[in-house]
Amino acid sequence: MKVKIYTTPTCPYCQMAKTFFKKHKIEYEEVNVLDSLEAREEMFSKSHQQSVPVIEMGDEIVVGFDRVAIAKILGIKD
Q1: Cα–chain center distance at 69
Q2: Rounded to two decimals, what is the model's pTM?
Q3: Cα–Cα nearest to 67, from 16, 8, 10, 28
């Protein structure tokens, strides 16, 4: 399943999400929304949120670092 995470460099929840993915060997694409207006607009159009992280997993979107929801979507027993 393709995983994309919209982040900012100083977001602690973004760091927690990336650590979670690394721990479970989940490959992901990171998009820094501070670097690109286009990326911010894309994130907002998908989530209707301006906060990070926004995590896209297949057709599912999770706003924030919700470990339980992410694990369920990815089929991880955490």
Answers
A1: 12
A2: 0.94
A3: 16
